[in-house]
Design goal:
The protein is of the alpha/beta class. The chain is built from five helices and twelve strands. The strands form four sheets. A six-stranded parallel β-sheet has the order 5-2-6-7-1-8, sandwiched between helices. A two-stranded antiparallel sheet has the order 3-4. A two-stranded antiparallel ribbon has the order 9-10. Helix 2 packs parallel to helix 3 and helix 3 runs parallel beside helix 4. The longest helix is centred in the first third of the chain and has 14 residues. The N and C termini lie far apart (about 35 Å). The C terminus is likely disordered.
């Protein structure tokens, strides 16, 4: 289990934590857990998510288990700097939906002494690194990879396999459109079917 950095001296800087994994792996649940603990400690916490994420709520960050925490939906990562610069802790959910500028924003916040907790999908539905997540993971002090369980094999699920017919890179959906699967299932049902990535719209 992740434990917060408890070092607290005058020159302690901020830091970045990334929570990543497939769909249904508990990323948002873990994000909410860490932010709630920070609130319990009396810290000033702000949570942000992309405006495109409207699956459960326009204003809350909501996990698949229906746990939720109040958030601010933003169009552009630069808004996070404006709204979160006076916080002790900044949380960011669904980071894969932001453009690459989120990497510079998150690092700038951490450089300014703020703890930044980020959650996002590490791979897209074709098993490729997703958006800014690789660079966020590379520059973070702490990276936690969480897993779902593959319903077909019972093994750890590392991939988010799309079960709907959609071809766009970003398509919001839940269990009706995605399944968390193990490597074996992903290889058999996606890679071995020789998906032609040129046929997908990005």
């Amino acid at each position: 289990m992740f434990l917060e950095n408890t070092i607290n001296h005058s020159k302690q800087s901020g830091w970045m934590e990334v929570i990543c994994g497939s769909m249904f792996s508990g990323k948002t649940e873990e994000l909410i857990r860490r932010l709630r603990r920070a609130e319990m400690a009396g810290q000033n916490v702000e949570i942000f998510k992309p405006k495109t994420d409207t699956r459960y709520s326009d204003v809350d960050v909501v996990s698949h288990n229906k746990n939720k925490i109040r958030s601010t939906a933003v169009e552009n990562p630069n808004e996070i700097i404006l709204l979160g610069s006076n916080c002790d802790v900044v949380g960011i959910d669904e980071a894969q939906f932001f453009d690459e500028s989120i990497v510079e924003i998150a690092n700038q916040l951490a450089n300014n002494g703020i703890r930044v907790v980020i959650a996002g999908l590490d791979m897209d539905f074709l098993g490729r690194p997703f958006g800014p997540m690789p660079n966020l993971m590379a520059t973070a002090e702490y990276v936690t990879k969480v897993h779902a369980i593959c319903r077909k094999t019972g093994n750890l699920a590392n991939y988010s396999m799309r079960t709907s017919a959609g071809k766009n890179l970003v398509e919001l959906g839940e269990t009706e459109a995605y399944d968390a699967v193990s490597r074996r299932v992903f290889v058999d049902e996606v890679l071995n079917k020789k998906v032609n990535s040129d046929s997908f719209e990005f």
